[in-house]
Write a structure and sequence with these properties.
By secondary structure, this protein is an alpha/beta fold. It is 43% helix and 15% strand. It has an eight-stranded parallel sheet with strand order 3-4-5-6-7-8-9-10. Strands 1-2 form a two-stranded antiparallel ribbon. The longest helix has 15 residues, at 83-97. The model has no long low-confidence stretch (mean pLDDT 95).
C-alpha cells in the first residue's frame, strides 16, 4: 500500500505519514528505518540533536529503496543558528546522513538567531543542498516574525499534536498561510488513556483497526502529517496501514470532542529557552 501525499505551498508533494526517529537509539534506529522504508514509508524524520543521523543514513542505504523516492528531513538545534555555524551545521548533517541533499530542513526551536539560521537555510536551498524548508515548535507569533523576512516560505510546522492537544488555533493560522501541520507525539506519546478512549475503541471495533491506526487516521483526515516512530517493524507496518478506511463527519466530530488543549510537553517557554541553550553536544561523535 502506498501513502497519499499532500501538495505543499511550493508545489512539491510530501507523504501523508512519515517515520519519526526521536529517542531512537543508534542500533534500533538503523534497523527501524530500514524496516519502515520496506513497509512503504517514504518520509524519514531525524535531527542533529537526536544523535542518530548516521544510523538513519545507514538504514536508508540498507533498505534498497532509491534515494529519489525518499523525503529525508533533519533539523538543526538553536546552538547552531549563528550564520556561519548554521551553514556548517547543514553541511555536517548531510555528511552524517551520507546524503548529497536534504529534502526538508527544519529549524528545531524558535529561539536564538532564527533569522540568521533561516537565511543560511535559504542559501542552502539556492546551493542545491536542501529542497524545502520548515520549522518545528513555532507558534503563531514566531511564524509571523519569520514570514515577515523570509524569501522562502516554510512548507510545514512540526508541533506536538494529538487528539488531546489538537492545536486548533495554530492549525487555523497555518491553513490561512498555506503551511502544513506536522504532528510529533501523534499518539500522545503512546498515552494509554487516549488509546483506550471509548470513542477510539468503538471505531477500532467498527473498522477492524488498532486504536493506534484510528488515531493516526484522525491526523490524516484533519489534514495533518503524523510522524509516529517505533523500533518494532510489525508496529511500523501497522501504523502505515491507514489508507483503506475513512471516518464519517459524525465520527470526526466525536474524535474532535476529545480535545483537552493539553500538551504532554509542559515546560514553560522561558524555562525551555534557557534549557535549549544548555544542550550543547558534539553531534559528530554519534556512531
Amino acid at each position: 500500500m502506498e501513502s497519499k501525499t499532500y501538495l505543499l505551498n511550493n508545489g512539491m508533494a510530501i507523504p501523508q505519514i512519515g517515520f519519526g526517529t526521536y529517542r531512537a537509539a543508534r542500533a534500533d534506529c538503523e534497523h527501524a528505518v530500514e524496516a519502515a522504508l520496506r513497509s512503504g514509508y517514504r518520509l524519514i524524520d531525524t535531527a542533529n540533536v537526536y544523535m542518530n543521523e548516521r544510523a538513519v543514513g545507514r538504514g536508508i542505504a540498507n533498505s534498497g529503496i532509491e534515494r529519489g523516492e525518499i523525503v529525508l528531513a533533519s533539523k538543526i538545534w538553536p546552538t547552531e543558528y549563528k550564520s556561519k555555524k548554521a551553514t556548517e551545521a547543514i553541511d555536517r548533517t548531510l555528511s552524517r546522513l551520507g546524503a548529497d541533499h536534504l529534502d526538508l530542513l527544519l529549524l528545531h526551536q524558535p529561539f536564538g538567531r532564527v533569522e540568521e539560521a533561516w537565511k543560511a537555510a535559504e542559501d542552502a536551498v539556492r546551493a542545491g543542498k536542501v529542497r524545502m524548508l520548515g520549522v518545528s515548535n513555532f507558534d503563531e507569533n514566531d511564524l509571523e516574525k519569520l514570514l515577515g523576512y523570509c524569501t522562502i516560505k516554510p512548507v510545514l510546522d512540526q508541533v506536538e499534536c494529538h487528539p488531546y492537544c489538537q492545536r486548533r488555533t495554530l492549525a487555523q493560522f497555518l491553513r490561512k498561510n498555506g503551511i502544513l501541520l506536522e504532528s510529533w507525539y501523534p499518539l500522545g506519546n503512546g498515552d494509554t488513556e487516549l488509546l483506550g478512549e471509548k470513542t477510539v475503541m468503538n471505531l477500532s471495533e467498527k473498522y477492524k483497526k488498532t486504536p493506534v491506526q484510528i488515531v493516526l487516521c484522525w491526523h490524516v483526515e484533519e489534514g495533518y502529517l503524523p510522524i509516529p516512530g517505533t523500533k518494532n517493524p510489525k508496529h511500523a507496518a501497522e501504523n502505515f496501514n491507514i489508507f483503506d478506511f475513512s471516518f464519517t463527519n459524525e465520527e470526526m466530530s466525536s474524535l474532535r470532542s476529545l480535545d483537552r488543549n493539553e500538551r504532554l510537553f509542559r515546560m514553560k517557554r522561558g524555562i525551555q529557552k534557557y534549557v535549549v541553550f544548555l544542550q550543547r553536544m558534539n553531534y559528530d561523535r554519534q556512531k
